[in-house]
Amino acid sequence: MAENLSGNSAEFQMWVTFALIIGAFLFYVFERATMEMTSVGLICLLLVFFHFYPVVNAHVENSVDPVRILHGFSNPALITVLALLVVGQGMVRTGVLDHGARVILAMARGGTGVFFALFFSLTMVIIISAFLNNIPVVVIFIPIMQALAARFGQSASKWMIPLSYAAVFGGMTTLIGSGTNLLVNSALIEMGEKPFGFFDFSIPGMVLAGVGLIYITIIAPRLLPDRTDTTDETGNRDGKQFLAQITVNEGATLIGEMAVGGIFRGLPNLTIRMIQRREVMLLPPYEDVEIQIGDILVVAATRKALREALAGDPGLLHPDLGDERWGTRLEARPWEEGEQMLGEVMVVPGSRFVGQTLPQIGFRYKANCIVLGIQRRSRMIRSQITEIRLQSGDVLLVQGPPDDISQLKDSRDVVLIEWSTEELPALDHARRALAIMVGVVVLAASGILPIVVSALCGAAAMVICGILNVQQAFRALDSKIVTTIAAALALGVAMQETGGATFLARGLVAALDGQSPTVMLSLFFLVVAALANVVSTKACAVLFTPIAVDIAREIGVPPEAFAVAIVFAANCSFASPLGYQTNLLVMAPGGYRFVDFARAGVPLIFFMWVAFTLFVPWYYDL
Q1: What angle do the packed helices 517-532 and 594-619 form, to 10 degrees?
Q2: DSSP letter string, 43-78
Q3: Is the pLDDT of residue 474 over 50?
Q4: Which of 133, 447, 581, 598 is deepest in the core (most CB within 10 A)?
């Protein structure tokens, strides 16, 4: 039976492939299983089916054998995507994006109005997303957009969806801007077509990004709901205040900082409760008070604000415990060297620390960790943290090497709050990380090295240069991306070899018989854009690229325009949070419901379709 069904005709296999595609789509949409399980299960079904019902080619060989089905796991596009995730993680790990985001925030705040701030910020997101993975860019910019929205008295729900859309726009403009683009390029290579260059679709991409930018700046905020209460609940979970201490030493950037309206602009999001100036204690309100060398600032702030302050100056919050006065100098200072981590520990009842101050305890020398702040719920404290006598229930914000933070689990005096640990940016590697990222882009854009080679070398350089360790590099990889792309590529091979792509292409051409290539291209874009909001954008890219190429061949036009249509249309996952991961990232900060994405996304898809139809056929001379 297998032999009869596996002759020259692969019609039976084609319809089974279509059934598997529909089944996979349903599982992805309704989440009957995890994406990883669905993808691996689909690959297993393909392996079993085509073993018993092979598609025999002219050389009497199975053209959909296990090697072809599993080829997706070694596909250059997948390797490039994963390598770029590691490079992007290096940029996040070293605080390069954090620093750039703070600069953008300062510049946007200097604008004259809400339009300028939103337009400027989203433009920067588009530019950065053209060269970096969208996910870390959105993660970094979420608090930036929240701060800007608060400054102009608006709800963050007006700004979060535009942030996600802007990251997608940036990904449309270069070959490495999105994994979707790389997959389309890989599918072209698989079919023997000319691959894209780094900037081949940048001009039409920038046109569509420009149209989208105008929409998300002017129209989208008017369509989105005002969810002030929801945003407050989800955006300010880290609201507890820690008391911290800043010693202004010689050469500090704070020297000469003047209070304007009682606020020191050099210390955003930090509330100064007291300034100790030699024997004098200065209390708020502060008017015309200038920070001087030797001042000790007692500040109150959330952990998030303290972490941002550390990103700008790693030693800013390290309190002076009087080591030199007591003759207690240490050669090694592990809390200032190598990888650093933040964590919270609680002083337990019966602890030996109760009733003692930090200098008396010698916590930094016993634990190799430094206490940055103290949180006490019962009352507001106005004294230096080095003079506070600890009580049971006090929460200490500590910084130290990861191994030493982990060892606090074994302490009898404090208990480590497990969920509170997080890595601090490795600021001393920032220049190296930036140089590696620039090198990857330059080598790929200039054609000196293929994109997969430059990306993989960049990922390796991040580890070799000590910016990431092996565990951190592997944590940057996403199992959903690996399995989903491999499954989509396997389906693409099956659809191509069984003739499914040609069947669909001829059906579409026959349905539009007599129509111009422009009309066909426009309608094809619209169909793919609609499906991209239901299933993964990467799956759409892989499955529809063979169809796009076959349509171009059927009507006798160069395939490039139809391949570009896949790049742009598959990225148009604006009307649903399911299509693109950045949409999911902004749901909680914006307090969104599913329908909010449709409210803002459906009109945007229409505008993108019109812009595509008017510009791309003309640009490619169809």
Answers
A1: 160
A2: HHHHHHHHHHS--B-TTSSBTT-HHHHGGGGG-HHH
A3: yes
A4: 133
At residue 3, the pLDDT reads: 42
Residue 353: what are its φ and ψ, rounded to 5°? -80, -20
pLDDT in the model for residue 72: 79
Residue 4 lies in a domain: no
Bridge partners of 290, per DSSP, are 258
**What is the average per-residue pLDDT within 511-533?**
85
Residues 74-132: tens digit of each pLDDT = 888 788 878 888 887 888 777 776 666 667 666 666 555 778 888 888 998 999 888 87
Rounded to an integer, what distance in angstroms lies between the CA atom of residue 510 and that of residue 446?
41
- Least reliable range by pLDDT among 70-84, 398-412, 578-592: 578-592
Whether residues 165 and 108 share a domain: the answer is: yes
Q: Provide the b/e sequence for 125-145 (b: ≥16 CB within 10 Å).
A: bbebbbbbbbbbbbebbbbbb
274 three-class SS: strand
Q: Is position 414 within any domain?
A: yes
CB 572 within 8 A of CB 612: no
How does DSSP classify residue 348? P
Q: Which DSSP helix (H) or strand (E) runs through 97?
A: helix 96-109
Q: Does residue 511 lie in a domain region?
A: no
Judgement on whether residues 133 and 204 belong to the same structural domain of the protein = yes
The whole model's pTM is what?
0.69
pLDDT at 452 over 50: yes
Does residue 125 sit in the same domain as residue 162? Answer: yes
Residue-range definition of the domain harbouring residue 113: 79-232+429-475
pLDDT at 1: 37
Q: Are residues 459 and 408 in the same domain?
A: no
> Does the pLDDT of residue 604 top 90, yes or no?
yes
Tell me if residue 306 falls in helix, strand or coil: helix
Q: Which amino acid is at 143?
A: P
Task: Decide if 173 is inside a domain.
Answer: yes
The secondary structure of residue 260, as a DSSP letter, is B
446 with 370, same domain: the answer is: no
Buried b (16+ CB within 10 A) or exposed e, 41-66: bbbebbeebbeebbbbeeeeebbbbe
**Of the candidates 282, 244, 222, 283, which has an alpha carbon nearest to the alpha carbon of residue 372?**
244
CA distance 215 to 208: 11
Number of domains in the chain: 2
Residue closest to 289 by CA, chosen among 264, 312, 318, 325: 264
Instruction: Work out whether the CA dihedral 399, 404, 406, 408 comes out positive or negative.
Output: negative
**Residue corresponding to tokens 């509170």:** 420
What is the Cα–Cα distance from 433 to 88, expressed in whole angstroms? 9
Strand ranges inside 461-602, DSSP E: none
For residues 147 and 104, membership in a common domain is answered with: yes
Is residue 301 within 8 A of residue 317, CB to CB? The reply is: no
Mean pLDDT, residues 554-583 taken together: 84
Same domain flag for 443 and 417: no
368 and 471, same domain (yes or no): no
Q: In 3D, which of 207, 211, 217 has the Cα closest to residue 606?
A: 211
| Nearest CA among 530, 528, 557 for reference residue 543 | 528
